[in-house]
Write a structure and sequence with these properties.
Order of helices and strands of chain B: EEEEEEEEEEE
Largest sheet of chain B: 7 strands, mixed
Shape of chain B: globular
Distance between the termini of chain B: 37 Å
Distance between the termini of chain A: 40 Å
Radius of gyration of chain B: 13 Å
Number of strands of chain B: 11
Strand content of chain A: over 45%
Largest interface: A-B, 23 and 23 residues
Order of helices and strands of chain A: EEEEEEEEEEE
Helix content of chain B: under 10%
Largest sheet of chain A: 6 strands, mixed
Oligomer: heterodimer
Structural class of chain B: mainly beta
Structural class of chain A: mainly beta
Strand content of chain B: over 45%
C-alpha cells in the first residue's frame, strides 16, 4: 500500500552528538525521497532529497541514506545544535508524483 | 525572491460554513499542492495542480475542492465545514513534475467551531 512511517515519534539527542532519524516506506516503485524539517509555527522546510538511483547523499551537516532492499530511509545530522530542534518528516514521491508524508519524528536537543 | 504566500494565516469559521484559502506560489513555479496537517493524521495530501489542471487528488471528500489560475495562484475551498476540518492547511509550490523540490508556505490555521 501507500504508506511512509517513522520508527520513533520522539528522539532526544545531546547537543553536539549526531542524530539519526529513521523512516520506512512501503512502495518499492517510489523513485524520489525527501526529508523536511518543520519548526513550530512554520511550514515544512526542505532539507535534502535523494533519488532511487542513489544510496547516499550529503548536504551541509546532513546525510540521507537510502536502502532500497529493506525500503528504509535515514537522515543523519552531524553535531546536532539547538536550532535543529524540530519535527522531521520523510516523504515518498510515488510514480504519479503524489507525495506521501510520514507521521514525523520530534527531535529534542538536550543541553 | 518571495516565498510561498498563504492567506489568511488564521481563520475561525462555524460548522456548516464554507471557506476559501489562497496560495501564491514562488514566481516561475507552475505546480501547487495542498496538504492538511493535524496532530492525529499528520500531513495528508489533498490535491495538486499544474498548469491549471488537477494532476493528483488525495482521499478527501468532495467538500474539498481547489483550482489554479493562469498565473499559477491557487485556491482551495471547503464547503459545509465540520469540526474535524480544523487543521493547518499547507500549500507547496514547485517548478513542476517530475520530482522537483517543493517549497511550503507557512500555512493557514483553520479553526471550525
Amino acid at each position: 500500500g501507500e504508506s511512509v512511517g517513522l520508527h520513533l515519534p520522539t528522539l532526544s539527542v545531546q547537543e553536539g552528538d549526531n542524530s539519526i532519524i529513521n523512516c520506512a516506506y512501503s512502495n518499492s516503485a517510489s523513485d524520489y525521497f525527501i526529508w523536511y524539517k518543520q519548526e513550530s509555527g512554520k511550514g515544512p522546510q526542505f532539507i535534502i532529497d535523494i533519488r532511487s538511483n542513489m544510496d547516499k547523499r550529503q548536504g551541509q551537516r546532513v546525510t540521507v541514506l537510502l536502502n532500497k532492499t529493506v525500503k528504509h530511509l535515514s537522515l543523519q545530522i552531524a553535531a546536532t545544535q539547538p536550532g535543529d530542534s524540530a519535527v522531521y518528516f520523510c516523504a515518498e514521491n510515488l510514480q504519479d508524483d503524489k507525495i506521501i508524508f510520514g507521521k514525523g519524528t520530534r527531535l529534542h536537543i538536550l543541553p | 525572491k518571495a516565498g510561498v504566500t498563504q492567506t489568511p494565516r488564521y481563520l475561525i469559521k462555524t460548522r456548516g460554513q464554507q471557506v476559501t484559502l489562497s496560495c501564491s506560489p514562488i514566481s516561475g513555479h507552475r505546480s501547487v499542492s495542498w496538504y492538511q496537517q493535524t496532530p492525529g493524521q499528520g500531513l495528508q495530501f489533498l490535491f495538486e495542480y499544474f498548469s491549471e489542471t488537477q494532476r493528483n487528488k488525495g482521499n478527501f471528500p468532495g467538500r474539498f475542492s481547489g483550482r489554479q489560475f493562469s498565473n499559477s495562484r491557487s485556491e482551495m475551498n471547503v464547503s459545509t465545514l465540520e469540526l474535524g476540518d480544523s487543521a493547518l492547511y499547507l500549500c507547496a509550490s514547485s517548478r513542476g513534475p517530475p520530482n522537483t523540490e517543493a517549497f511550503f508556505g507557512q500555512g493557514t490555521r483553520l479553526t471550525v467551531v
